[in-house]
Amino acid sequence: MTPQERARRSAEVMWARDAASQEMGMRIEDVGPGTATLSMTVEPRHANGHDICHGGYIFALADSAFAFACNSYNKLAVAQHNTITYLRPVRVGARMTAVAREVSLAGRTGVYDVAVEADGKVAAQFRGVSRVVEGEHFAEGEE
């Protein structure tokens, strides 16, 4: 199994159980070893009292991209620490795209940066630190 196949299979298994990301309208655009790209369209139900996307939804999109990136090696990884900086508002109707990339992987700890873009501009920067725990998404011999 190639690293790309492992990443895709891990994402398929995770996605099948990820009701939260699916219910928010997220979509996996791409996944690879240490990387993932997810997107979602901001709907009126995602708006806050300022009539812009609630920061929690922006965080959730970034967090989901982070999760698929750090779980791309068929090892169970969970968030240990996350931060986000909001740079500009995202309007209802905009398509947000979160691109996660691995910065460092040392032992069981990974560091990932996620850029959330909307309307061609970076709307938020997220940094996630992951921790590998016991288990895997699928047995490597499975087809």
UniProtKB/TrEMBL annotation:
<dbReference type="InterPro" id="IPR052723">
    <property type="entry name" value="Acyl-CoA_thioesterase_PaaI"/>
</dbReference>
<feature type="domain" description="Thioesterase">
    <location>
        <begin position="52"/>
        <end position="120"/>
    </location>
</feature>
<dbReference type="Pfam" id="PF03061">
    <property type="entry name" value="4HBT"/>
</dbReference>
<dbReference type="InterPro" id="IPR011973">
    <property type="entry name" value="PaaD"/>
</dbReference>
<protein>
    <submittedName>
        <fullName>Acyl-CoA thioesterase</fullName>
    </submittedName>
</protein>
<dbReference type="InterPro" id="IPR003736">
    <property type="entry name" value="PAAI_dom"/>
</dbReference>
<dbReference type="GO" id="GO:0016289">
    <property type="term" value="F:acyl-CoA hydrolase activity"/>
</dbReference>
<comment type="similarity">
    <text>Belongs to the thioesterase PaaI family.</text>
</comment>
<dbReference type="InterPro" id="IPR006683">
    <property type="entry name" value="Thioestr_dom"/>
</dbReference>
<dbReference type="InterPro" id="IPR029069">
    <property type="entry name" value="HotDog_dom_sf"/>
</dbReference>
<keyword id="KW-0378">Hydrolase</keyword>
